[in-house]
């Protein structure tokens, strides 16, 4: 029961503080050169490219325009640590991936949620 209270607290009181990062076309920083869209013209993903290949950060969005994933590409392949809005972290290597999730329901997700939103905010607003 105590865990349920903590989860409800996190869900309804902490999440709005972190905020929403819905993006509009004019808000995309210039270092993201490639865009993908859903059929209704909502942004689906933005990518940094170098020499016409995916290389650098990418941010993926859901069909409401909310960020759901952030990570890096190298030579058109996902590489390294990718952070997801559901607090999942996936480590991509050459052709395999290792999935790391929270060890128990909801507890400890706040630091990962903050990290995800901090990364998105940093790259969408060109913050150091």
Identify the notable features of this structure and list them briefly.
alpha+beta; 2 helices; 7-stranded antiparallel beta sheet; 128 residues
Describe this structure in words.
The protein is an alpha+beta fold and 128 residues long. The longest helix is centred in the N-terminal third of the chain and has 17 residues, at 2-18. The chain has one domain. Helices cover 26% and strands 35% of the residues. The model is unreliable at 8-21 (pLDDT under 50).
Task: Summarize the entry for a quick read.
This protein is an alpha+beta fold and 128 residues long.
Q: What's the overall geometry?
A: globular
* Range of strand content: 35-45%
Measure the end-to-end span. Answer: 41 Å
Residue stretches low in confidence (pLDDT < 50, at least 5 long) are 8-21
Helix/strand order: HEEEEEEEH
Order of strands, main sheet, comes to 1-2-3-4-5-6-7
The overall pLDDT, averaged over residues, is 76
Classify the oligomer.
single chain
Please tell me the total number of domains.
1
Rg from alpha-carbon coordinates: 16 Å
Which secondary-structure class do the elements indicate?
alpha+beta
The major beta sheet can be summarized as:
7 strands, antiparallel
Tally of alpha and pi helices = 2
């Amino acid at each position: 029961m105590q865990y349920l209270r903590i989860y409800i607290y996190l869900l309804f009181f902490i999440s709005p503080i972190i905020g929403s990062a819905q993006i509009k076309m004019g808000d995309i920083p210039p270092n993201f050169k490639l865009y993908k869209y859903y059929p209704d013209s909502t942004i689906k993903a933005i990518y940094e490219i170098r020499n016409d290949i995916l290389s650098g950060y990418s941010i993926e969005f859901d069909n409401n325009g909310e960020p759901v994933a952030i990570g890096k590409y190298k030579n058109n392949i996902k590489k390294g640590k990718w952070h997801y809005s559901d607090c999942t972290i996936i480590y991509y290597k050459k052709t395999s991936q290792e999935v790391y999730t929270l060890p128990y329901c909801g507890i400890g997700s706040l630091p990962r949620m903050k990290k995800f939103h901090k990364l998105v905010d940093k790259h969408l607003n060109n913050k150091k």
